[in-house]
Write a structure and sequence with these properties.
65 residues, mainly alpha, 1 helix
């Protein structure tokens, strides 16, 4: 009876470990996805800001004339 309980506990631990490993893999994948989204979003904002700066510089030059 004790041997059966030990096997059951070992199997339960195995299932828990596998479940945690799957969660860990999923979370790592989500982090990579979010980091990629943040980078592309950040790059897009920088490009927009640079375009706006160029536009304002041109307006300033035109007003100075």
């Amino acid at each position: 009876m004790f041997c059966v309980m030990v096997i059951f506990v070992d199997m339960s631990m195995y299932v828990v470990i596998k479940y945690v490993q799957l969660q860990n893999k999923d979370l790592k994948s989500r982090i990579l996805h979010l980091e990629g989204s943040y980078r592309s979003s950040k790059e897009g904002l920088v490009a927009q800001m640079e375009a706006r700066i160029t536009e304002l510089e041109e307006r300033l030059e035109n007003e100075e004339r």
